Each structure stands twice: as C-alpha cells, then as structure tokens.
C-alpha cells in the first residue's frame, strides 16, 4: 500500500526486535487514534543510511521545531539498561521478556528468560528519536508457546 509520509514518523528499530540489523519503521498517523506501522530492513549500513537520508526529510513530524541556529542538527538519543525483575509468579510468567516502546511504538526487546527472578542485564542505545516522542514504556511480557504473548506489567515515563 501507499504510505503518506507527510503524517509519518521514522523510528529506529533496535536489532534485538527482529534479531536483524539495519531495520527501521515508518509509523503513519493520519488520525490521532489510528497508526499504521511499516517495517523495513536494509542489507547493510550504507543502504540503511541511504534510506534514512531519503525518507527522513519527507517525514514531517507534527511537533517539529525550527532550529534556533542554522546548520544545527537536533539529535535525540537515550540509553536504557534493563537489569532484572523480581518475584514474578512462575506459573503465570514462565518465559518473561521486556518490550521497549516510544509513544507506544515497539522499538526493542530483551531476550526471553526462564526464571522467576530473571536477570536481563541488557543495554539499548536508541538514537535519532523523533521529536514527537513524549512517552517511554517498558512492558514485562510473557512469551506464549501456543498463544499470543501476554503483557504482565507496564511502566511509562512521560
């Protein structure tokens, strides 16, 4: 289908999400309550940079601000470390993992652990975050064997 880039946001996808490097996503928000997500992957770093440099100027974030200084680039990044979880009910959460979202857009996840007190100890460096991002959410999920993954807990920063 077609993607209207005038109301689309470009998000990085951490390699942990698909176990693949050079992925990104276009999140089209034509209406505030509806988002269409399109995932894309490049073969290598050069192709990835080419795609980003072509698409990014065409995506017009609604909250974009003009730079105060010409030739100044505003870069937003964050480093998150997911350490561990405590007292998870093992019968309800036998295979926990954490999911990181920016504005409810999934961008990274930890490896699945099989423990009541899982130690993830994973660090995520998310770069070039769109200026419209106002929330960061970490969700504790349970990997279902025959069912859909279930959310167990969630924490959101505004």
Automatic annotation (TrEMBL):
- Among the Pfam families in the record, one is C2
SUPFAM superfamilies named among the record's database cross-references: C2 domain (Calcium/lipid-binding domain, CaLB), PH domain-like
What residues does the C2 domain cover?
57-158
Q: Where is the PH domain?
A: 1-60
Give the protein name, as stated in the record. Answer: Ras GTPaseactivating protein 1like
Q: Which species is this record about?
A: Caligus rogercresseyi (Sea louse)
